[in-house]
Amino acid sequence: MLMALAAVSAGAAPYRAPVQITEAAPFLRLDASTEAWQHGLGSDLRDWQLLDAQGRRVPFALLPDELRATPERELKLAALPPPPAPASAPRNRLPAGWLLDLGEPTQWPAEPRQLRLRWPADAAPFQAGYRLETSPDLQAWQTLGTGQLLGLRTTDGAPLAQPLVTLPGRPQRYLRLIWDDAARAVQPEAVTLLAQPAGAAPQQLTRTSPLPAPDADGGWVIPLGGPQPLLNLALAGNQGTWVLPVQVQTRSSAKAPWQTIARSVFYRVDRGNAPADTAPALPLDISASELRLLPPHGTALPPPGSLRLDWTLRVIRLVWAAQGEPPFSLQVGAATPETGPRPLADVVPDWHREQSRLGRAQLGAFTPQAMPPTGPALPPRRLLLWAVLGVGVVLLAAVTWRLWRQGPQTTST
Fold first, then answer.
1. Across residues 222-249, what is the average pLDDT?
2. Which residue, of 281, 288, 294, 340, has the fewest CB within 10 Å?
């Protein structure tokens, strides 16, 4: 009983960080730091609360993330003619690659970022290298980069693909994807352009961590430091050539089983003096506290210490009315029915008018806070007396109930 009383009186201490207003306005914006996630209870922010100098709650909402929906559009595929070959070569030769028209750059609704290729469902497994070039007029071509495209299957038949082509910088109107060896490639049936709204600043943070030693199952477990909203991740290295198919796994707690959320192929192809070919980041839209990358059992791995995991987080931005008494602070780690974000319309009634006038605030370092007592603290001796009294009451009730069950007894002569 004493242990139960101690457990009830104990609680997780919240963390609090000062909020400094750097640009005053009727409504303020605050970018949450990655440190906030380390002390939070969940990605739904149910334990976050904004406080004024008197400790009163200040309602806040989440700033809409305009970049969560990536604009996409299908592109037409035009086959490039095969390279010159001897007359004895077969007539029905494969195309050297594919030509893509992105349209006039001045009319692009969004900035091109990636290409996503799609192959027939019954396509044979393949791994093909490519060279990507761009041109404004189909005459002068400039190399953008090289890479690998893969369409494989696991031992249990699950698809394992790397269909993305990253567009470094800002390409010109035309793109051409040229195979290193057309005979090793499977011709795509469609290609999608992934873009980013022009002029929009990405609400994201990038973090990195070296891979630890593998666990008992041969996987790399990477703690992220609290539940965080992931946008993408990439496995990178600095030595040699390697290709690693992996399962990306998460779990809800340290004792829960791992669940596979994605399969991908990461690679590094050493090009000598030229930059190495590396796999594009794997897009994700999940919340996780830790990840595990699990390669197939028995796979030859790159040298220890040469791999790292890079991941991108979606930045959480808070908005609130400049009400209450400054200075303000942000507290995380203690959930109550009143904590957490409110609907945007409840905090900023005329969002379309105010969104271009937001002031700014900056978040400081977090420090642990003592939990306020829920009632007058009792000394240990008094707790012991109350515990003994409680046990006595229970025993007395048990004896009374037993006597009542037996009922009155009568004797006969």
1. 90
2. 340
